[in-house]
């Protein structure tokens, strides 16, 4: 056992006199990123789409209240829920958009709150591609005209259209604009979302990307959009701005992006000045990010992607983070001991936003993982998301999270909230068109 003395420099949330016993020092030591920004410790709040934007798709008081809890929760970095680069392409109806027309003040406020406890503020930026609910938008662009296949839920999703080259260049510009504006607002960096079956992950996937031009076919072509965006963001935002990428360890679908390909993509990213690669997995069709894969495959019951991430770390020139299934301190420790530099947590921080502080006071403290054991993977995933989002809304309203929210009631409340957000979004888009 080592005796660890926390100083203000290591973690501002602890008084210099706090003396805590740990069996390892890595998790609670600072990490300097290639861009020279420093995380006070190795634990990161991963992105969770809140669906809580205010009017005009901007962050407002509810999001500020929510992030205040995380800001003072002892984390090393805080990644926002995905922020859209295009207001006509939304992962969800209550999403936040940052484009060239967005007022910057609400984002400045958001960044200030996120950074107020010493954590780095990283804005996740995203384009949904074909993973769009039809109620929000009937049409979506994707690498190819390949619709999402979700059994009886398929009809709830937009019709996919193959993006033209011009649209692809527009998307690159939109990512760069959002990154530049995040910097202007005071964020320490952005995370480019290339996982979970959204647009950049669709381009990487041979199942969805059936193009025969320079954007499809070989892995080099399928990765071209991601590589272009990362290079442009790095070039335009400067070397002191942090650029993170979230990538699937694999798609976990037959014919999807493989583990070997994910490693190859990371080898490409090595040359582009990326600060962190976050490893997750899956998509709406295969929600591996929640630990659910095909019956023929298995993931670890906790830290689902830790082994994959440790493999990727062997070829990665930048720090590697893994997210998924982490809610206990011994597991977080194992993750850093097995070769990963950063530990990402999402849903456990929805119920216990100060989980890291709780771990430091009591290493046995168990975070809550909300989950559904239904055999219908899509419904189970929907229920899990509903329960987590309910906790986020409660925190946003300064109500304490529930340790055991009812699954059915969470699903109903989420549906009601989403319907309200959808009506508001459609009215806004109709007004602006
Ligand atoms: C309500 C909810 C919203 C999410 N939104 C995002 C998102 O915006 N971007 C993202 O990369 N991942 C998102 N995720 C996935 C998480 O970042 C994470 O990869 C996944 O939940 C597994 O981590 P966990 O087991 O710690 O929850 C979301 C997860 C939940 C539960």
What distance separates the N and C termini? Answer: 63 Å
Tell me the fraction of residues in β-strands, as a range.
5-15%
- Tell me, what is the CATH class? Alpha Beta
Radius of gyration: 20 Å
Kindly report the average pLDDT value: 92
Structural class: alpha/beta
Q: What ligand species are in this complex?
A: flavin mononucleotide
In spatial order, strands of the major sheet run 5-6-9-12-13-14-15-16
| Poorly predicted tracts of residues | 1-23
Summarize the structure.
By secondary structure, the protein is an alpha/beta fold. It is built from 13 helices and 16 strands.
Q: Any overview of this molecule?
A:
- The protein has 433 residues and is an alpha/beta fold.
- The chain has one domain: TIM Barrel.
- The chain is built from 13 helices and 16 strands.
- It has helices at 61-71, 105-115, 165-185, 199-204, 219-222, 224-237, 259-269, 306-315, 329-337, 348-351, 355-361, 377-396, 407-432; strands at 2-5, 19-22, 31-32, 38-39, 43-45, 77-79, 83-84, 96-97, 120-126, 139-142, 159-162, 189-194, 242-248, 276-280, 320-323, 342-345.
- Strands 5-6-9-12-13-14-15-16 form an 8-stranded parallel beta barrel, surrounded by 6 helices. A two-stranded antiparallel sheet has the order 1-2. It has a two-stranded antiparallel ribbon with strand order 3-4.
- Helix 1 (61-71) packs across helix 12 (377-396) and helix 3 (165-185) runs parallel beside helix 6.
- The protein starts with a strand and ends with a helix.
- Bound molecules: flavin mononucleotide (FMN).
- Flavin mononucleotide binds at residues 46-49, 81-82, 124, 193, 195-196, 246, 280, 289, 323-326, 345-348, 385, 388-389.
């Amino acid at each position: 056992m080592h005796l660890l003395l926390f100083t203000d420099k290591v973690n501002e949330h602890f008084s210099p006199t706090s003396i805590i016993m740990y069996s390892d020092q890595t998790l609670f030591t600072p990490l300097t990123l290639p861009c020279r920004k420093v995380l006070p410790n190795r634990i990161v709040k991963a992105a969770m789409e809140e669906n809580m934007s205010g009017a005009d798709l901007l962050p407002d008081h509810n999001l500020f209240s929510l992030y205040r809890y995380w800001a003072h929760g002892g984390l090393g970095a805080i990644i926002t829920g995905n922020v859209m680069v295009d207001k006509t392409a939304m992962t969800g109806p209550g999403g936040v958009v940052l484009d060239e027309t967005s007022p910057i003040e609400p984002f400045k406020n958001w960044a200030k709150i996120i950074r107020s406890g010493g954590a780095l503020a990283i804005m996740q930026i995203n384009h949904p591609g074909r993973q769009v609910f039809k109620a929000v938008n009937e049409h979506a662009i994707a690498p190819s005209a390949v619709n999402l296949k979700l059994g009886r839920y398929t009809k709830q999703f937009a019709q996919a259209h193959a993006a033209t080259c011009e649209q692809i260049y527009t998307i690159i510009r939109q990512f760069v604009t959002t990154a530049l504006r995040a910097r202007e607002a005071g964020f320490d960096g952005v995370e480019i979302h290339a996982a979970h079956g959204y647009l950049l992950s669709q381009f990487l996937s041979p199942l969805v990307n059936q193009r025969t031009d320079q954007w499809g076919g070989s892995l080099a072509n399928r990765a071209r959009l991601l590589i272009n965006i990362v290079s442009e963001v790095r070039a335009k935002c400067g070397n002191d701005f942090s650029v993170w990428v979230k990538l699937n360890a694999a798609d976990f679908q037959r014919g999807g992006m493989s583990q070997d390909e994910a490693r190859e993509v990371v080898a490409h990213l090595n040359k582009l000045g990326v600060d962190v690669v976050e490893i997750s997995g899956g998509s709406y069709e295969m929600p591996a990010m929640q630990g659910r894969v095909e019956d023929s495959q298995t993931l670890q019951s906790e830290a689902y992607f830790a082994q994959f991430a440790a493999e990727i770390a062997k070829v990665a020139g930048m720090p590697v983070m893994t997210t998924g299934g982490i809610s206990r301190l011994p597991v977080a420790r194992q993750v850093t001991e097995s070769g990963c530099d950063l530990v990402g947590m999402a849903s456990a921080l929805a119920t216990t936003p100060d989980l890291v502080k709780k771990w430091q006071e009591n290493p046995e403290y168990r975070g809550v993982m909300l989950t559904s054991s239904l055999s219908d993977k899509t419904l189970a995933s929907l229920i899990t998301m509903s329960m987590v989002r309910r906790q986020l809304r409660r925190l946003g309203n300064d109500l304490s999270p529930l340790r055991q929210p009812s699954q059915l009631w969470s699903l109903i409340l989420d549906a009601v909230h989403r319907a309200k957000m959808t009506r508001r979004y459609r009215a806004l888009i109709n007004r602006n068109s």
